[in-house]
Amino acid sequence: MSNPLQKPELPKRFYQGVAVEETAAGFEIRLDGRPVRTPIRTLLAVPDRVIAEAIAAEWERQETHIDPSTMPVTRLANTVLDGVANDLGATRDDLARYAETDLIAYRADEPERLVARQAEAWDPLIAWVEARFGARVRTGAGVMHVAQEPATIEALRARLAEENDPFRLAAIHQMTTLTGSLIIALAVAEGRLGSDEAWRLAHVDEDWNISLWGEDEEAQARRASRLTDMRAADLFLRR
User: Fold this and answer.
1) Which superkingdom, per the lineage (predicted)?
2) Is the predicted pLDDT of residue 2 greater than 80, yes or no?
């Protein structure tokens, strides 16, 4: 009997060569000349050569077995082609929910140094939202829900409605879920922040705790993996 906790066996690498080919569908990834397909058999074709070459590099780096956990750009492209591209509205709606629970709206009430670090990191983004969208972001201390003004939520929804490229929209969604902040993700999408700076701002609380208690290897590995996903999303925004 198989162990339900045992990780599934990874498929063996079955190809020798990896190439990018431009076709009517976009830039396709080819393995020994054959096109790659997504988990639901959609043709893996992307609209940008840089993204395609990043995907090809991930396939090339696979050694004896194919490990999807080491292929963040491929995974995100699959998400776009199998999901987001088929229903942009659902992705926008999911993102809009983050407008009501954005990370940067929730502040510590102590200790004083953490309060100051949060303000230094996040208050400029609050000001940016007001200047860019004419919307005020309410903040609160503790874990109680901070209700945002309907006009603020509507302004952020309107910004999301402008995103009609499924690759960009998926990137914003991935950044939002990784950081817990739609505002941080939109700041990257608009060039207000670089992805590494956005990552730092999203981890003010975590870095504070690490400075006090340290960080174990497993937590470090999880964070490093999530950072690669952040950078994959950033690649999709730079096209």
Assistant:
1) Bacteria
2) no
**Euclidean distance between CA atoms 135 and 130, whole angstroms:** 5
**140 CB-near residues (< 8 Å, 6+ apart):** 105, 106, 107, 146
Write down the H helix ranges in the chain. Answer: 49-61, 72-82, 88-98, 112-133, 150-161, 166-179, 182-189, 195-202, 204-213, 217-237
Q: Give the list of residues 6+ apart from residue 202 with CB closer than 8 angstroms, or none.
A: 103, 178, 179, 180, 181, 184
**Is 57 in the same domain as 108?**
no
d(CA 74, CA 201): 26
Residue 45 φ then ψ, to 5°: -135, 130
96-128 confidence digits (pLDDT tens): 999 999 999 999 999 999 999 999 999 999 999
| 99 and 49 both lie in a single domain | no
Print the domain residue range for 140.
86-237
In angstroms, rounded to a whole number, what is the distance separating the alpha carbons of residues 103 and 125?
11
Q: Is a pLDDT exceeding 90 seen at residue 61?
A: yes
- C-alpha 28/C-alpha 22 separation (Å) is 6
Residue 8 covered by a domain: no
DSSP state, residue 179: H
- Per-residue tokens: 80: 């776009």
**pLDDT value at 10 more than 60:** yes
- Burial classification of residue 45, based on how many CB atoms lie within 10 Å of its CB (0-12 exposed, 13-18 middle, 19 or more buried): buried
209 lies in a domain?
yes
